[in-house]
Amino acid sequence: MGDGWTMRKMWVGAGAAAALGMGFVMLLVVGVYVVAGNLAGGAGGGAKKLAKGSVPAAYQPIVQKWGNLCPAINPALLAAQLYQESGFNPKARSAAAAQGIAQFIPGTWATHGIDGDGDGDRDVWDPADAIPSAASYDCSLASYVKDVPGDPTENMLASYNAGAYAVIKYQGVPPYKETQNYVKVITTLEKSFAAPTGRVDPSEQAAGAIAFAQKKLGTPYLWGGNGTADQGGRFDCSGLTKAAYESVGIELPRVANDQYNAGPHPRREELLPGDLVFFSDDLTNSRAIRHVGIYVGGGYMIDAPRTGAVIRFDRIDTPDYFGATRVTEDGAKALPTTV
């Protein structure tokens, strides 16, 4: 009796929520450009602070402190660089011999590594040294190109990628595709690590992503599922959100904790249909996120919850609610393919 009643209750609730969700879909389809106009110019000026949990708790105080070392950087920009370089992995090592959370090569570390925690050594593998060193190196590069016209942060990032000489020679970001892309990637990722200072612009692709997910309601969950034919069209949580946004031309990473970095983070009271909503047992660390769904309005999401369940509507207001991301095309493109 218990299981049958639970299933009936779930689908009655799902039916009511489906009507609610479809209403929001229609609102988005008809009015997304109006809403976008009303909310334009969301992020204002002022000192940037880190978004909730966007940097692992062990590193957040260091990033917040050293991210204010000079005017050319800020905590969110520094976090974006660390995420791009290593995914906050202090043991990361690249094929090019780059080491640690900030991926210094030995020659650069020898010149620019500092004793950030004042313990008497400079250890490239210690984030308490490597993160301050990354900030210090950024500021050194900014000082080299301080007389170059243009945006000082973009000139600093271009120097990081192509060298200060190239920035001075071209009097700004040099015409190298790789360098121009690096500047765009980091400045775009910065928005994912910054706590918004105003409302966040809505996604124009949100309605299509929701429509895709609604068509999958009732599909059994499959761990690792991507919805392929050999998997019977089944999904896990991040497989569903990836496929939903892929249907509207946005390529997301495969796992939920990387999907969190695909755009800025609206507050709970600012959620719009199409936002990704995330859940974690550690509310201080986005790298520990374990579940994701697509918000449809009214406090509900569509998600693929767990083995033995089906894709369905669930409430988002639970103790493990972590936060949300408003997916943007540029934000998704900026994410590293491996972290």
Explain the overall architecture.
The protein is of the alpha+beta class and 339 residues long. Helices cover 43% and strands 7% of the residues. The chain has a five-stranded antiparallel beta sheet with strand order 4-3-2-1-5. Strand 2 and strand 3 form a beta hairpin. The longest helix is centred in the first third of the chain and has 38 residues, at 2-39. The radius of gyration is 22 Å and the shape is elongated. The N and C termini lie far apart (47 Å). Residues 1-46 have low confidence and may be disordered.
Helical content band: 40-55%
Shape: elongated
**Beta-strand fraction estimate:** 5-15%
**In this structure, how is the largest beta sheet organized?**
5 strands, antiparallel
Going by helix content, strand content and strand pairing, the class is alpha+beta
Helical segment tally?
12
Question: How are the strands of the largest sheet arranged?
Answer: 4-3-2-1-5
Oligomer: single chain
Distance between the termini: 47 Å
List the helices and strands in order.
Answer: HHHHHHHHHHHEEEEEH
Instruction: Write down the overall mean pLDDT.
Output: 87
Low-confidence stretches: 1-46
The total count of strands amounts to: 5
**Radius of gyration over all CA atoms, rounded:** 22 Å
